[in-house]
Specification:
Distance between the termini: 34 Å
Largest sheet: none
Radius of gyration: 12 Å
Number of strands: 0
Oligomer: single chain
Structural class: mainly alpha
């Protein structure tokens, strides 16, 4: 898997988790998707886009 593919997968996981919305029914699945997205960016050594935005503001 290329870095580009891994990045796209992580972003897709993050978007899928966001689409699940709030609620206890999907909490475990949502948390797992967030973890996968974070792990992928950590592994490829990049800052996730959702963190870059926050750091640029602060």
């Amino acid at each position: 898997m290329s870095v580009c593919d891994a990045r796209q997968h992580a972003i897709s996981c993050r978007k899928a988790a966001d689409r699940l919305g709030p609620g206890t029914l999907y909490r475990a699945r949502r948390q797992r998707l967030y973890q996968v997205a974070e792990w992928v960016f950590e592994t490829i050594g990049e800052l996730p886009p959702w963190r870059r935005h926050r750091e640029a503001e602060g």
